[in-house]
């Protein structure tokens, strides 16, 4: 196939890649193409079609805010968007901005090599591109993690991973289903699978908090209010530390009496959703404050789950609330009151292997017709490291052998003109994703536009700036309870052999946006520009408790 010559190549047609294409092509006038492995737009949501798959951000904030027209022309139907509705939304945006003519679907990038002036990109089907700028918008929760459990290839039933769900669906009727994993995904899937299957066995390795989502259809007045409040919603989501459309209370947990605190939690439980974290400012910074929320939720679990033995397993949670990504649910704990549902505590009886007919733990065999892996992702780095990205004789894999190092989560030292949307070191996974994505995509487009205006051929972060950023990411994390959880995917702990490095930026979206703007305003401080290194600004943490994300 002939090599296609471009100004910019973007990987991924999800929230990030679609908007990046629009900005580079329509605002900067660059010859731009997107390469996308799936057959359609949607990114992560193209693949996540498992039963119950729904975003945990509220729909009126889980969207783009770059266009008033797009905002006013779209209407969400429920409090939280389901996976199909998110795809419909992205399809609607893609149609409206005429993006699909510049997307090559069903094509997966295999390698990208910097030749000294351009990126030479090769796809698995042999297609080739040469581009001055190379943007990866490949998602941070997109590389499905199927654990390497011995015997899986001998299993005679069907197995699926939630993040690679078959488009035709899975028929659970009359089947004995085993679900491994109780993160956000497993907690959404289990109630729906239990309602369809003959029997469901949930294999839990780590017990998890969850607050009720309280999903419901939006009322006509709410839809109208959201439509008419473009400016307010945009300003709100840009001014909260996590990009969500609600403010975190300025009160601390012990500013109020025990009775007042209980009333606040009772009310939040009824309101539902990720807002539970917003009850007190210091929940993620102070263990004693966190314990009040943790104990409240554990108490609720024990109230809901009728069998005391199951309630004990489900509420035996060993990490602070929201120090791992906090799920929200629709009748998850109630599911364990069903006659056709069993719970297996993998801490007491670890999985030994998968057999032809099911799962074998240390305590015995669980015969199954179908295994659902709700086992998450090789988060933040997996999708990027699946591509051979090479510059000046080194690959990103080499440079990240001991853990990812980026500057601002958007660039890698020694890899010129490469931009990573929501790479490690970006706040995205702790925040409302589209708000972070929009900021990153706009910053990248501005940087590329600046390079073009100033005749810059080559821009990459300096190694010193990347070191400073990694140190600041750690400093921000250490001001929270997040790194105290040793089994968190924020630290890479879910993937055997992955370096244990805290990856997301926990300093909050407001601070992060300010840092990125300052870097740009100072002429891309922290970057080497056509051979000239510009020192990065000093990063500092102030008011951390107010600006920690999630
Ligand atoms: P998560 O949050 O990584 O959850 C994965 C779950 O699978 C979690 O309960 C894991 O237990 C469990 N797991 C992973 N590997 C195994 C093995 N080998 N054996 C048993 N159990 C295992 O992924 P999700 O898809 O739920 O959510 C990812 C993000 O998507 C979420 O944060 C939202 O932002 C949307 P563990 O806790 O590691 O002990």
Verbal overview:
- The chain has helices at 15-27, 44-47, 68-73, 83-96, 184-196, 220-228, 230-239, 258-271, 287-304, 308-315, 382-385, 396-399, 433-453, 463-478, 509-521, 544-547; strands at 3-11, 32-35, 103-104, 109-114, 119-123, 128-136, 158-161, 176-180, 199-204, 211-212, 328-329, 341-345, 351-355, 358-361, 364-367, 370-373, 388-391, 394-395, 418-420, 459-461, 527-529, 532-533.
- By secondary structure, it is an alpha/beta fold.
- Strands 1, 2, 3, 4, 5, 6, 17, 18 and 19 form a nine-stranded mixed β-sheet that branches.
- Strand 21 (527-529) and strand 22 (532-533) form a beta hairpin.
- The structure holds ligand NA7.
- Ligand NA7 is lined by residues 141, 147, 180-186, 205-206, 325, 346, 351, 374-377, 487, 489, 494.
Protein topology:
Elements (H helix, E strand, L loop, with lengths): L2 E9 L3 H13 L4 E4 L8 H4 L20 H6 L9 H14 L6 E2 L4 E6 L4 E5 L4 E9 L21 E4 L14 E5 L3 H13 L2 E6 L6 E2 L7 H9 L1 H10 L18 H14 L15 H18 L3 H8 L12 E2 L11 E5 L5 E5 L2 E4 L2 E4 L2 E4 L8 H4 L2 E4 L2 E2 H4 L18 E3 L12 H21 L5 E3 L1 H16 L30 H13 L5 E3 L2 E2 L10 H4 L3
Parallel strand pairs: 1-2, 1-6, 2-3, 4-17, 6-19, 7-16, 8-9, 8-16, 9-12, 10-11
Antiparallel strand pairs: 4-5, 5-6, 13-14, 14-15, 17-18, 20-21, 21-22
Helix pairs in contact: 1-13, 9-10, 13-15
The structure holds ligand NA7.
Ligand NA7 binds next to helix 5.
